[in-house]
Amino acid sequence: MTTRSDDTNLPVILVGAMTKDRVIGTGNGMPWDIPEEYQTFIDNIRGQTVIMGRRSYEVFGPDLTSAQAIVVSRGAPDLGVPVVDSIEKALEMARSYGVKIFVAGGSQIYELALPHANWMYLSEIKEDFDGDKYFPEFNRSQWEVTREDEHAQFIYREWQRTA
Ligand SMILES: NC(=O)c1ccc[n+]([C@@H]2O[C@H](COP(=O)([O-])OP(=O)(O)OC[C@H]3O[C@@H](n4cnc5c(N)ncnc54)[C@H](OP(=O)(O)O)[C@@H]3O)[C@@H](O)[C@H]2O)c1
Question: Which sequence ranges form a coiled-coil region, renumbered to this chain (predicted)?
Answer without folding.
Answer: none
